[in-house]
Amino acid sequence: MILDLKGEPDMEPVAGILYSMVDGNYKRLKSIVAGMSQEELDYKGPNQKYNSTAQLLRHLAYLDLNWVFRIKGEVMPLELEEKFGPMLDEKNQLPQHKGISLDVLTNDYDDVLSMIKTLCCQLTDKQLNQTVEYENGVEATIQWGIWHIADHNRYHQAHINQLRKWFSQS
Question: Is 104 exposed, middle or buried (CB count within 10 Å of its CB: 0-12, 13-18, 19+)?
């Protein structure tokens, strides 16, 4: 196997590279959580004070989905908002997702990745320089947004790896 940053044949070069980063990190995430039991998926670390892997998976899928609709300049459909959201609960924390199976979480996330792929197939490299509203009045280029999807995924992989370590020691 050769690892490389090449997009799909029907993507422009830069869009393809950015998609390749997202796809590569998502495949790595799936390998990290593969075979995880429901107990481990819902485990919240020592003293139950951290986000569980289930919460982190849903959080990643939800934020990636937000980026898809932000880039498209559309409002997320209510049924997707209800399925993946909200961003935070009434305590300003990641919502609980206890009891949702790994298959459901990853199949739902697969659907989001499919949307990202479709989006990247439609984007021209010139469009990647367009800006979209990010948060709190800050704008970001579309290419930064796609890079951020990949980076954010990798960031939470470290948390999931730490949870796995704690779980194996408990």
Answer: middle
**Rounded to an integer, what distance in angstroms lies between the CA atom of residue 170 and that of residue 163?**
10
What stretch of H or E contains 106?
A: helix 102-122
- CA 21/CA 5 separation, integer angstroms: 7
Interhelix angle 102-122/53-72, nearest 10 degrees = 20
How far is it, in rounded angstroms, from Cα 21 to Cα 50?
Answer: 27
The CA angle 87-135-96, to the nearest 5 degrees, is 10
pLDDT tens digit sequence for 42-58: 999 999 999 999 999 99
Say whether domain 13-169 belongs to CATH 3.40.50.2000: no
- pLDDT tens digits for range 98-135: 899 999 999 999 999 999 999 999 999 999 999 999 98
Closest among 144, 133, 140 to 73, alpha carbons compared: 133
Look at residues 8, 4, 3 and name the one whose alpha carbon lies nearest to residue 114: 8
**Which residue type is seen at 20?**
S
pTM of this structure: 0.94
Residue found by looking up tokens 């919240």 in the block: 44
